């Protein structure tokens, strides 16, 4: 299991196309993808658009992405790339 | 309708526009359904142009599925023509085709009309509240069978 933290840059938060792109990328990973937000105890499935909306990540929020599975390192890198370019 | 400050705990029921709720909306397809829901918001004064608002709703539709599964769709428009940020809810007489994550048709539309000053963190937090409600076991199914304001209030308060 591996995790990384990233600060959401998008003015509109992790929503709309960025969220759709993130979920699509997460769904292609074999590993489980879990999202957490600093200050919130909830854990949310990164492959579900509903769960990503539950996370409620705004611009400036620090989000922790955890990947657990056979491609966890690669998954994290791909998801970081997705969030970096939104 | 009370205007909520960003750091105040949101109660979904306070953001719902009760003048724009229909438990038995007749619509043949997505386009007609959205047109009728937007008309409710326009008549109420929450939006100042139904045509422009629908354009902004479709802009969001182009960015990814708003059909979240379980018969529920959560379309939204962030628009300059939104006078009051609010939520409209329509339960359809018959399910309609929609771009959904589970391939199933939609029975309930939860449409967010979002003013430009609310389009960032306020909207994200509001959507988070609604999403967490929808994620509770059985809520989506209850919404698809909901036929009264009282019942809807119970589901929201749950």
At a glance:
Chain A has 86 residues and is of the alpha+beta class. Chain A contains 3 helices and 4 strands, in the order E-H-E-E-H-E-H.
Report on the architecture of this protein.
The complex is a heterodimer of chains A (86) and B (158). By secondary structure, chain A is of the alpha+beta class. Helices cover 37% and strands 24% of the residues of chain A. Chain A is built from three helices and four strands, in the order βαββαβα. Chain A has helices spanning 16-27, 49-55, 72-84, and strands spanning 2-7, 32-37, 44-45, 62-68. A four-stranded antiparallel sheet of chain A has the order 1-4-2-3, with helices on one face. The longest helix of chain A is centred in the C-terminal third of the chain and has 13 residues, at 72-84. The mean pLDDT of chain A is 93. With 158 residues, chain B is of the alpha/beta class. Chain B has six helices and six strands. In chain B, strands 1, 2, 3, 4, 5 and 6 form a six-stranded mixed sheet that branches. In chain B, strand 2 (67-69) and strand 3 form a beta hairpin. The longest helix of chain B is centred in the first third of the chain and has 15 residues, at 30-44. The A-B interface holds A 11-17, 19-21, 48-51, 53-59 and B 60, 63-65, 68-69, 74, 78, 101, 119-121, 123-125, 127-132, 134-135.
Largest sheet of chain B: 6 strands, mixed
Count every beta strand of chain A, where a strand is a DSSP E run of 2 or more residues.
4
Shape of chain B: globular
Strand content range of chain B? 25-35%
What number is the mean pLDDT of chain A?
A: 93
The greatest interface between two protein chains, and residues involved on each side, is:
A-B, 21 and 23 residues
> What is the H/E string of chain A?
EHEEHEH
Order of helices and strands of chain B: HEHHEEEEEHHH
Largest sheet of chain A: 4 strands, antiparallel
- Rounded to an integer in angstroms, the radius of gyration calculated over CA atoms of chain A is 11 Å
Secondary-structure-based class of chain A equals alpha+beta
- N- and C-termini, Cα separation of chain A: 25 Å
Query: What distance separates the N and C termini of chain B?
Result: 21 Å
What is the helix content of chain B? 25-40%
